[in-house]
Amino acid sequence: MIQVLFVCLGNICRSPMAEAVFRHQVKEAGLDAVIAIDSAGTGDWHIGHPPHQGTRDILDQYQIKHEGLKARQVRSDDFIQYTYIIAMDASNVTNLASFAPDFVEGEKRATIHKLLDFAPDRSIKDVPDPYYTGNFQEVYEMVEESCERLLAFIIEKEKL
Ligand code: 4NP
């Protein structure tokens, strides 16, 4: 099983949006039996909470299911369980380091990427945080495009 974990700060705006969109795309591609998906936040303020209203509204608008999503915090064993950890911005990558204990050589499985690494045509490299900007539409467009390309990358890399 290939495991993909999306990570942001609060796990209520960007990473649950990416989780829902990617799950939808993976299902459409008929790969839901081989690719497992989750999301988490580096912060602990929203543990157990559903996605932000803005994320739920935009997902509803595009008829992407999000029922049952609940925020959780990153755990150290995520670095062993997950194949790919996809962060929304550079500060998430920095914060992730504090959750990665000193793994024995070869034990850590996950490779960490930023979502916009998969959208090289875009001028920005970090997904803006709609918790502060209020712009869920622009984030949806970035997430949708980058997740499509992430899926193509995984299909090629994992020979699916
Ligand atoms: P997210 O946005 O990282 O995209 O989920 C945020 C959500 C909540 C907070 C910060 C960012 N917060 O400070 O509570």
TrEMBL record:
The keyword NAD appears for this protein: no
Catalytic activity, EC: 3.1.3.48
Catalytic reactions of this protein: O-phospho-L-tyrosyl-[protein] + H2O = L-tyrosyl-[protein] + phosphate
Top EC class, one word: hydrolase
Alphabetical UniProt keywords: Hydrolase, Protein phosphatase
InterPro entries: LMW_PTPase, Ptyr_pPase, Ptyr_pPase_sf, Tyr_phospatase_low_mol_wt
Domain of life: Bacteria
Residue ranges constituting the Phosphotyrosine protein phosphatase I domain according to the UniProt record: 2-153
PANTHER family: LOW MOLECULAR WEIGHT PHOSPHOTYROSINE PROTEIN PHOSPHATASE (PTHR11717:SF7), LOW MOLECULAR WEIGHT PROTEIN TYROSINE PHOSPHATASE (PTHR11717)
Entry protein name: protein-tyrosine-phosphatase
Species this protein is from: Paenibacillus germinis
